[in-house]
């Protein structure tokens, strides 16, 4: 009897937003492949087009709707569209009104139901996954399609219960729920067996990690992942200053594989603004955390942060408090954003909005200041020999692209007569030139 096989369905996925979204896409891709779909690299080749969306700021959200408008004509060719992620959860069924050619709308708390949703849209029905924000379940799948064979993400906690006054995440990703430490460690071991050496633990607020089986605190989990044979580097993001406890600093200081880099978003240097943001810490409490890191005995911590300028009511003096904080801490990197009013959030109702012009000015002042701080901080690496993991090659410049354990880019040349190290290899390089955002040097042979 002849077997009639239908041609394999193809999909294209584009991802916006943070590392959590990027990693969710790796799991969504794995799930689609396990359901018989094949991934393609262009919209034109795809039967099903996925957008994994972000709504953290207004610009991010607008991008998604522009994309959908661009591709409207493709529906006539029989293509289907799926909108997932934070804009999907935030806008829900309104997306069908705004973009009638969409067949699937789902937030991240519903991804474990994707196989059923795929069946529904395969039958020509619309599918939604929007009602799972109160779930205790996490999206665990054996089908993660990681894009990099050396460094990979592991989600340890999903959602967020902090409800900072400006932020959509608690509404888009639902309530906080942690995976068991056993499951996280099993995934880390599988990754090590598959050749991964660099692991990044993910969550919107990793310090609130709470093992449902009560077997490990966050610091203990971090240590255990760092002790998995074959793992050479472990990072984690994002930390919340309120729950960033001393045992985390101690773990990093004593376990060699835990990277000497901490991203600790401060948002503002003014305790008054922090309170209006519902951040649950003061400038002083934040600086105490910083002092723990600076007092570490074995490692020199590299610290990076996020800052919001122009939060409603932020005075010039309060903005200057943020500038002095930059000096006091000495960050190796700052992600700075203009406050963007977001749907559902309390800050939307706050009085004394700052004009866009003024926000732009504050952002420029802050970035200029930080550039000088970084120029001086990076310059201190001159002459250092640092271990880097090879990430790629810059052929026009004849350089190998490396990343240090502090998460800095160190581009280096290989002395004549020596083999170029492979991607994923660890080598030592000596810093000969420094810039505000990267280092350059030569491989030590
Ligand atoms: N969970 C992390 C960060 C999540 S979002 C934390 O608590 O720090 C990443 C960054 O985006 C935030 O740190 C903040 O600086 C910025 N951000 C979030 N909402 C914003 C908004 N409405 N306007 C401008 N920046 C925002
Ligand atoms: Fe947003 Fe605050 Fe949660 Fe971070 S901790 S995701 S800023 S609500
Ligand atoms: Fe954006 Fe959602 Fe991440 S809003 S930053 S994709 S959690």
Oligomer: single chain
Name of the CATH superfamily of the domain at 10-129: Methylthiotransferase, N-terminal domain
Bound molecules: S-adenosyl-L-homocysteine, iron/sulfur cluster, FE3-S4 cluster
Using the 3D structure, state the CATH architecture of the domain at 10-129: 3-Layer(aba) Sandwich
Beta-strand residue fraction: 15-25%
Categorize the overall geometry: globular
Report on the architecture of this protein.
With 445 residues, the chain is an alpha/beta fold. Among the domains are: 10-129, Methylthiotransferase, N-terminal domain (Rossmann fold); 385-443, Nucleic acid-binding proteins (OB fold (Dihydrolipoamide Acetyltransferase, E2P)), CATH 2.40.50. The protein has helices at 19-34, 58-70, 86-91, 94-98, 114-122, 169-173, 181-193, 218-226, 246-254, 271-276, 283-294, 316-329, 356-379; strands spanning 10-15, 38-39, 48-53, 80-85, 102-106, 127-129, 151-155, 157-158, 177-178, 198-202, 233-237, 261-263, 302-309, 333-338, 385-394, 399-404, 409-413, 426-434, 438-443. It has a six-stranded parallel β-sheet, sandwiched between helices. It has a five-stranded mixed beta barrel with strand order 15-16-17-19-18. β16 and β17 (409-413) form a beta hairpin. The radius of gyration is 23 Å and the shape is globular. Residues 56-57, 166-167, 169, 204-205, 238, 240, 265, 267, 306, 308, 337, 339-340, 342 line the site of S-adenosyl-L-homocysteine (SAH).
What topology does this entry show?
Elements: E1 10-15, H1 19-34, E2 38-39, E3 48-53, H2 58-70, E4 80-85, H3 86-91, H4 94-98, E5 102-106, H5 114-122, E6 127-129, E7 151-155, E8 157-158, H6 169-173, E9 177-178, H7 181-193, E10 198-202, H8 218-226, E11 233-237, H9 246-254, E12 261-263, H10 271-276, H11 283-294, E13 302-309, H12 316-329, E14 333-338, H13 356-379, E15 385-394, E16 399-404, E17 409-413, E18 426-434, E19 438-443
Parallel strand pairs: 1-2, 1-3, 3-4, 4-5, 5-6, 7-10, 10-11, 12-13, 13-14, 17-19
Antiparallel strand pairs: 8-9, 15-16, 15-18, 16-17, 18-19
Helix pairs in contact: 8-9, 12-13
Bound molecules: S-adenosyl-L-homocysteine, iron/sulfur cluster and FE3-S4 cluster.
């Amino acid at each position: 009897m002849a077997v009639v096989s239908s041609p394999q369905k193809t999909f294209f996925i584009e991802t916006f937003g943070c590392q959590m979204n990027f990693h969710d896409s790796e799991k969504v891709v794995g799930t689609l492949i396990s359901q018989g779909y094949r991934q393609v690299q262009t919209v034109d080749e795809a039967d099903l087009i996925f957008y994994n969306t972000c709504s953290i700021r207004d610009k991010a959200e607008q991008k998604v709707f522009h994309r959908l408008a661009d591709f409207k004509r493709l529906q006539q060719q029989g293509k289907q569209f799926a909108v997932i992620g934070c804009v999907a959860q935030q806008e829900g069924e309104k997306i069908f009104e705004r973009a009638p050619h969409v067949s699937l709308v789902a937030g991240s708390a519903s991804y474990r139901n994707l196989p059923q949703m795929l069946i529904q849209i395969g039958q020509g029905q619309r599918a939604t996954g929007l009602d799972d924000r109160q779930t205790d379940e996490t999206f665990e799948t054996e089908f993660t399609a990681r894009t990099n064979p050396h460094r990979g993400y592991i989600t340890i906690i999903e959602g967020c219960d902090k409800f900072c006054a400006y932020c959509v995440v608690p509404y888009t990703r639902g309530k906080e729920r942690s995976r068991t430490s056993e499951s996280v460690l099993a995934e880390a071991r599988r990754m090590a067996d598959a050749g991964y050496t660099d692991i990044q633990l993910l969550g919107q607020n990793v310090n609130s990690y709470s093992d449902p089986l009560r077997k490990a605190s966050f610091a203990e989990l971090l240590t255990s992942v760092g002790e998995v044979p074959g793992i050479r580097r472990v990072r984690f993001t994002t930390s919340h200053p309120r729950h960033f406890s001393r045992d985390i600093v101690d773990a990093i200081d004593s376990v060699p594989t835990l990277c000497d880099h901490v991203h600790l978003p401060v948002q503002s240097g003014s305790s008054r603004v922090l309170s209006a943001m519902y951040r649950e810490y003061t400038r002083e409490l934040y600086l105490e955390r910083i002092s723990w890191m600076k007092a570490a005995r074995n490692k020199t911590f590299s610290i990076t942060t996020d800052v919001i300028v122009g939060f409603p009511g932020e005075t010039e003096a309060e903005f200057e408090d943020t500038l002095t904080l930059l000096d006091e801490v000495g960050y190796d990197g700052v992600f700075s954003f203009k406050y963007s009013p977001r749907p559902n959030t309390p800050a939307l109702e706050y009085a004394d909005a700052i004009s866009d012009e003024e926000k732009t000015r504050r952002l420029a002042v802050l970035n200029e200041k930080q550039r000088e701080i970084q120029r001086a901080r990076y310059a201190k690496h001159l002459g250092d020999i640092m271990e880097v993991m090879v990430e790629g090659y810059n052929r026009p410049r004849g350089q190998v692209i490396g990343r240090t354990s502090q998460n800095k880019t160190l581009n280096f040349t290989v002395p004549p007569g020596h083999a170029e190290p492979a991607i994923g290899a660890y080598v030592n390089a000596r810093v000969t030139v420094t810039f505000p955002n990267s280092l350059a040097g030569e491989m030590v042979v």
